[in-house]
Amino acid sequence: MGKRVSRRDFLAAGAGFAGTSAFSVPFAAYAQATGGPRNNIVVRVDREFASLDPAFRRGPPEGNVMRSVFQHLMVPKANAVDHELEAAAEVKQVSPTTISFRLKPGQMFSDGFGEMTADDVKFSFERIGLPPKDGGKVATYKADWIGLVGVEAKSKYEGLITLEKPRANIFDVVIADGSGCIVSRKAVEQRGDSFGTKPVGSGPYMVAEYDRQKGIVLRRNPVYGGGKKTRFDEISIRTITDDKTTELALRAGELDFALLSPSAADPLRGVAGLTVTDQPSMAYVWLGMNMEKAPLSDLRVRQAIRLALDVDQMVLAGYNGKAPRLNTAVPPQVMGAWKEAPAYKRNVAEAKSLMAAAGIKDLKVKLTVQNQQVYQNMALVAQALLAEIGITVQVDAQPAGTYFESGKGDVGKNLDLYISKFSGKHDPNFVLQWFMPKQIGEWNWSRFNSPEFEALYNTASSELDPAKRRQEVIDLQKLMDKSSAFVWLTNEASAVVTRSWLKPASIPGWIDWQYSDFSAG
Q: Could you tell me the pTM of the whole model?
């Protein structure tokens, strides 16, 4: 029998919970420690929200909300990787570079913005994939639509997507994913920047309440015209940055669903009313170095740092032995994983020799990490290891809001070392797109600037022969390895903790949750 926690215990530990008073419905009213299925559920995310505009989303937390708010032409089925039609009545590959679609009539946008048309599809895809007009902001996920020529609205419901070259992943990680969200042209143009906090979609849910730091409330969309039957009237998504606070909230019945590291979930195994399920991950975690900033601009210094670190020790400290080591960017379950990638072992003598050859001693650097225990633990191990070769490391643990800006724009030029995690999908080009030269100042925090990498990436993205594409992806990883700017750590492991009656849904291997497909057993 697990330890019982009172509401007083939970509130006393609530420093990691981003508050409840901003929401119109009291937090405890949603979830109770006892009882069976309800019409409302509470879900935890571990960081504050950014924009809910598909063009400027940050990552999975926003993407998971958007999946329930916006429709796509097609989407992955619940708990599956194969697709089914959503807003489209038909999607057809007309040629290797053209895709036609026909919308279902009667797909209505919320807030009175009318019926979805082919022009809305055109607007949605082109605002991500084509250069912005009038000096507008470039979409965060522009690389998803790389090679888009344009979208032609041939009638009210019919359109044609044209690409420069064939795309091996056009359906899996573009049309059926976040960059395939269909927005209302009228709503975006009318609301401008506020669209990111007041999104207008045609999906089964709409955003009823938004607080960047505290969370989001989704309620059923009264004008939803699709065929999905949702189980819950309301889904409250709460920001709780601290794992211990999350544990207490689950024990106290204040949460119904959370994703935790296996070690953080261990105390909850066997607790009455909760189910803990281990889940493999396609995330990739690494320690990166800013290649443009001296003396990290010297290859020998980067090589020395890589040799001074002990990946196994760092992963053990971060994940208590419950996560596998990763030696390259592409996780093992994704096509093109480099199985023969070198597993670098610690060599202090060689690291010192490289530092001496570079003429560097008594180096001071800052290691920037998100202020979560797993990353801080790994950073402290790195700090101790690098001290042995004369590098003094200051660990700078930042909350998510500032951490995710620390490598961007001109601020990113001052970054030294960092530990980062990206979420993968079943496509190697998605995994590797963030290391393109065009991503410098956005997500390419190592400022890895390789024209050879860019050219090969573009070749791989349009290669339809699986064997050729696999080798091209491996060669891309070899170029990254040659730079010595990346010390790969792990592709993680996660534990899903839920009420025993709650049945979550997700795309297998991803941490992309299908909230609108959550059900009760």
A: 0.81
